[in-house]
Amino acid sequence: MALLSVAPLAPRWCVHKSLVTSSKVKVVRRTISTSIRMCRITTESGEGVQRRIANHHSNLWDDNFIQSLSTPYGAISYHESAQKLIAEVKEMINSISLKDGELITPSNDLLMRLSIVDSIERLGIDRHFKSEIKSALDYVYSYWNEKGIGWGRDSVVADLNSTALGLRTLRLHGYPVSSDVLQHFKEQKGQFACSAIQTEGEIRSVLNLFRASQIAFPGEKVMEEAEVFSTIYLKEAILKLPVCGLSREISYVLEYGWHINLPRLEARNYIDVFGQDPIYLTPNMKTQKLLELAKLEFNMFHSLQQQELKLLSRWWKDSGFSQMTFPRHRHVEYYTLASCIDSEPQHSSFRLGFAKIFHLATVLDDIYDTFGTMDELELFTAAVKRWHPSATEWLPEYMKGVYMVLYETVNEMAGEAEKSQGRDTLNYARNALEAYIDASMKEAKWIFSGFLPTFEEYLDNGKVSFGYSIGTLQPILTLGIPFPHHILQEIDFPSRLNDVACSILRLKGDIHTYQAERSRGEKSSCISCYMEENPESTEEDAINHINSMVDKLLKELNWEYLRPDSNVPITSKKHAFDILRTFYHLYKYRDGFSVTNYEIKNLVMTTVIEPVPL
Predict the structure, then answer these.
(1) Is 467 left (phi over 0), alpha (psi -120 to 50) or beta?
(2) Domain coordinates of the chain in residue numbers?
(3) What GO terms are given for molecular function (predicted)?
(4) 76-294 — its CATH code?
(5) CA 92, CA 594: separation in Å to the nearest integer?
(6) Are strands 37-44 and 24-31 parallel, antiparallel or unpaired?
(7) Is 3 helix (H, G, I), strand (E, B) or coil?
(8) pLDDT tens for residues 549-564?
(9) Which CATH class name applies to 295-609?
(10) pTM exceeds cut of 0.85
(11) What is the pLDDT of residues 48-77, one digit of tens each?
(12) Nearest to 343 by CA among 292, 296, 310
């Protein structure tokens, strides 16, 4: 019964001799949830080394499988077809930009522009139409007033559908629009008005009201009211609707909202929805061209994904990670998350760097939380701060390979970042890494001593030990977007945007991981620290309190990301924000870091492995 693999490793890796010579293994098992079984293993050897290990499921994506993937969509003919479709769609957009043209009138021009922008963005093809989108939104904003907008510039009465869609879209693009416009769609009693019979038009209006409510800023009570009203309304509506494009759209939006939604996953879903029901757009607008382009773009990027995934899998295998059995192997899942938020072909370094850094952070997390002894962790922490290959001299054998891959990967990414930024950024990366290692070391000391910190002390440390900062900083520096020091200060630690993001992820993560961690002897979590300070509270009380904290923080995150008075453009903050969305997505149902053979496996299949049928 092989609880710890001691099989021969790749040349770069060696097994610590305490594992090879172990004479006795004791196993204590307990089930901590329906989805994961953890083992607490004490390994006794002649040297008296004791280790704990979480029995995480193995890698789901064999390198041989990854290397066997193939697709025809990298052929030049598909790229030529896409370029032709892009030109045709641009022509279509320009045609509706003409005042009083054939397809647009003073009574519908605002909603038509918003609808085409919304569809282009949700189909995942907006990167080709940046100037057209800006022109359309500038036009809509020029008619925006304190009551919102109607269907067209000549509309006398504001329309909920146009106003809600406009509020959401304009706010996401940095226009200063107030949610107070929604007050005008309430009855005298202060409730949002709706008819006794739910029409398709009204359902769509409430759907866009829900979507707008997800972009709430702190203190916007009307947005909170809109979310409550629209959620109840849509849940009732979907029970009455037949299976159709509208019902699928409602289901998806209610399921993922905004913070959990991933652009590529949305594009895959919306391709099917749009194919059934090209919302708001007339047949004369050649909407079929939009759909054809979206499918081609999806599949051409799918071809690039396979190439990048093969490189990543080979890195994982050649580095020796495939021979290690104690850590979680999530490199494919991390790559999937990166490619779900950035499908720009030129951003390969971002996607691969994201996957490598977060995979390494996960291995380090498993070393500091479970596998490493205190003496080993002290040595590794000192080696990271020394930052030189000679530092491996004092490390146990299993740590030497981890250290060298970490060292080489961080330095390699710093080299990529220097090409993009025109300056050496290694010190930024090292500072973030040292902060992460120090926070992990503090947690390890708590685990070994059984110490339970205060809630505030735990959260302050946990925001850093989550690893968001180290996983965000280096990948975004390779994007080709200028990140001078003053902008990095607004994105990276200790900026408010970074602090809020880290708080959300630590709080939300603990809700899904505290039971498994407690079963491994890890006493500290947001839940346990809260209950210690509030002895009368139950676990349910603690979870409700933390969820309430997260809800408030999400609104603050929206503000820090989208605030119109910021001197940092939204484009510079977008990847940092979207990286939070990827991990928030992982925590929707369970601890998606540890248990990836359900929803996350399906995400890999849907957005990376399988193309869209043309």
Answers:
(1) left
(2) 76-294, 295-609
(3) magnesium ion binding; terpene synthase activity
(4) 1.50.10.130
(5) 47
(6) antiparallel
(7) coil
(8) 999 999 999 999 999 9
(9) mainly alpha
(10) yes
(11) 677 877 778 889 999 999 999 999 999 999
(12) 296
